[in-house]
Design brief:
The protein is mainly alpha-helical and 218 residues long. It is built from six helices and two strands; from the N terminus they run E-E-H-H-H-H-H-H. Helices cover 70% and strands 5% of the residues.
């Protein structure tokens, strides 16, 4: 967006003359968007998200052994299924890295292909997580059954919602890339989504270790 500055000559009384023929106008071809402003703002958002997940991890650390005479993690968790789900998310992080490499080479088609693969792996992750939730609810392990299950569903479900929003963001960005190509704004958006996606991978590694692996060690 261009900034417009108008300079007008002053009259005898010192007030500017309106509508004069000698009115001077010039333009500064600078953007309102500060350099690296988006990335700084997005880092601040990620820090706030870190605080949210830190609180949820702390709550689960306190309530993770409060079973209320109900099932524990050792009774409920299917580690092979969770390991498969984890591999889906970690692979999606790798494929997003390939998309960023294609973006740096200014190859739109390659970027779109790797983004599509990333979205499919993310969708598989969310699908397996929904299957796990439905299975637990079918077994009677509902969130209101115990404090352990309440903290489990809240922490894992919050992460799953983040992945879902990430997929929606990815699909929207693919439409933008298809319409406008690899312009500077789209490259900036790809960088922001890359930070978000890798952040979710790091959080999930913590969930897998702290919730699932330690949950079966009772």
């Amino acid at each position: 967006m261009l900034d417009t500055i108008a300079t007008q000559p002053a009259g005898a009384s010192g007030a500017p003359v309106r509508g004069g023929s000698n009115e001077l106008r010039f333009y500064l071809p600078t953007e309102h968007h500060p350099q690296n402003g988006t990335m700084l703002g997005f880092w601040l958002y990620l820090m706030s998200d870190c605080l949210i997940f830190a609180c949820l991890f702390a709550v689960h650390g306190v309530l993770g052994r409060s079973y209320a005479a109900g099932p524990s993690g050792a009774d409920l968790f299917d580690l092979p299924l969770v390991a498969l789900n984890t591999s889906m998310l970690l692979l999606s992080s790798i494929t997003y890295g390939f998309a960023m490499l294609e973006m740096q080479r200014n190859k739109l088609k390659g970027t779109m292909v790797w983004l599509a693969i990333t979205g499919l792996l993310g969708a598989a992750f969310v699908g397996l997580e929904l299957y796990e939730f439905s299975h637990l609810i079918h077994e009677g392990a509902v969130p209101q059954r115990s404090a352990f299950l309440s903290s489990f569903f809240t922490l894992v479900g919050t992460h799953g919602l983040h992945v879902t929003f990430g997929i929606i963001w990815l699909i929207t960005l693919m439409f933008q890339l298809n319409k406008h190509g690899l312009i500077a704004a789209n490259k900036r958006r790809l960088m922001c989504l890359s930070l978000f996606w890798h952040f979710l991978d790091v959080v999930w590694i913590g969930v897998f270790t702290f919730v699932y692996l330690m949950g079966v060690m009772v």
